[in-house]
Amino acid sequence: MKKIGFLSFGHWSSSPHSQTRSGADFLHQSIDLAVAAEELGADGAYFRVHHFARQAASPFPLLSAIGARTSKIEIGTGVIDMRYENPMYMAEDAGAADLISGGRLQLGISRGSPEQVIEGWRYFGFAPADGESDADMARRHTEVFLKVIEGEGFARPNPRPMFANPPGLLRIEPYSEGLRERIWWGSGSNATGVWAAKLGMNLQSSTLKNDEGGEPLHVQQRKQIEAYREAWRKAGHAREPRVSVSRSIFALTTDTDRAYFGHDGDSHDQIGMIDETTRAIFGRSYAAEPDVLVTQLKEDEAIQAADTLLLTIPNQLGVDYNAHLLENILTYVAPELGWR
Fold first, then answer.
1. CA distance linking residue 302 with residue 246, whole number of Å
2. Cα(256)–Cα(242) distance, rounded to whole angstroms?
3. Is the pLDDT of residue 266 over 80?
């Protein structure tokens, strides 16, 4: 069995070819798609977070709205850029969204990806401390966030408060029990995967990963997952961790599918530089008839190693078409691979 969800980047555009013309369109369509995905039997509705772009941004209003409209599907992110986050305020938002959804939040967080603007986190009021990099700052924000959502009191109460306080130090409210175990780290390197395991976070293996061995992405990801699980075991955590990978996978069952994605059948991994010093590898897309997809996906070592698969979707093609794409995978591919 494998959990299968969708991952939306939340693009919108005024292009006549887009069915998602505005931020309002994206938000309402995302809620509708999550409802449809739940009805189809999908396991998760996840959203990428980008700032200064016509894409999904601050996620908690959307996650809360989906939580109020659904009852079973997991609701998450992949990922929130922690360079931009006030971890205390984020803990309040996350607690509220998790309570609204009845404990279905699965928050993917990370250092973030290449940005739309230069050092955009500075516009949000954040800057690395002396001797820190922006990645260090993201990890510092993360550690504060993880600590405060554990629910322990840490703030000294006012002796003359407006409202009566419980005894002792105060914690961030609202507190949602169990949320701490549903935090994921989006890892683009083997080292950050090990770091995430030590802190007891689940792993989202990034499709844009540091090229650390020259091997195909799925092999590098499988090795990253193995290193993560070994670090988890050595850390002595009581529960079993979860691991996800994301892929663009399209089962071609109609002429429309073939027109949109038939040209992706010969897709390969891509190599590029994401900054002056970092060589990265980006994963291929899969697009084929269902029986061919089954054979191809059996050979993807990272998908086989993960317990959760997030299907990246072309959200600008509309709710109905994206629901059709999800249904194709759930109906024709997942059962043949033993995922259903």
1. 10
2. 35
3. no
